[in-house]
Structure of Cupin domain-containing protein:
Amino acid sequence: MALQGFDAQHFLDTAWQRKAVLIKAALPNFQCPLDGNDLAGLACEDDVDSRIIIEAKDGWELRNGPFQESEFATLPKSHWTLLVQGVDQYLPELADLMAQFRFLPRWRTEDIMVSYATDGGNVGPHYDQYDVFLVQGSGKRRWKIGGHCSPDTPLHSHPQLKLLQNFECEEEFLLEAGDILYVPPGVAHWGVAEGDDCMTLSVGFRAPSETALLGDFCDEIASRSDESRRYRDPQLSADSNPGEILPAVHAQLKQLLLKQLNDDALLARWFGEMMTRVPDQSEYRDNSTSLDEFSALLASGLELQLRLGARLAFDEQYLFADGVAFAYPPQNRAEVEALCRVECGESIDSLQNFSVEMLYALYCNATLYVDDDTNDS
């Protein structure tokens, strides 16, 4: 079901990465798939990224998880917020919410962060470096929108929180359950809970910096380079000053580097792998099951499912899955396209024409898993 009262193409043409937009009642009768207790339980897990921000008279206090259950009983009655990152990796019900934003490139998706706030709870005025859709799950939150910020925008001296020193409100919105506020990168915003049990689900979209792109691509080039290939001098003159770096040397160096940068095939593969990369994915990869054992599992009627939080993309040559490029034959293009439209928890009918070897590779990569409940009665 598409977002109500929302024209996706008009939004992309007029607002995307330009200005904040309120989509009122975008999700009619929205029922938040988790509550504060659920979120607190996740925040107690060792492998979950969580934090609590408390607004006190003398400023903001940041506490990092994982937390003990007893810690929540010691919090003040108001003006605090619990934030948990990547909740879509743990809660299947959030797949339906993520599906509402497939008018945007899937490979730009980051995760869903969920926050629970008591009355007055907020994280201070700030700006983000990525696009975000703020979905109000329950309760109310008042959002104030400021102007565009830059690296020169003055910040408070808090050692861990990047809060704006000066905030001037230009727009103001009160969000209730089912409302969505889009905020583009660099736009100042400040949300404050009005009443208790305020749940906000933040659907974020990754936007790597130029520094990150250059650094990662250079690492990729270096990992594939041949150490035996070395810098070679241009034609030298015995009369030149031995301390001078001649323009011909610069030209030689530029040619050497551009030869690597102009490898379009390498660029395409690297970018697909980088944009689908999942933190700590290597911990889940497992090839302990043999191909024969895997084939027997499929033959027994067990179905494959897409892992929560799996990241997929494709181009003309590769299916990119969780940071790995899998080459596919042209005749499987339709199946690859279909797979990249599947949401977690849905039946994966598009896999029927894939080779067992491809399915096995995706299984070992932990992108797919065998649903042991398929044949349960």
Notes: The chain has a mean pLDDT of 93. The first strand starts at residue 21 and ends at 23.
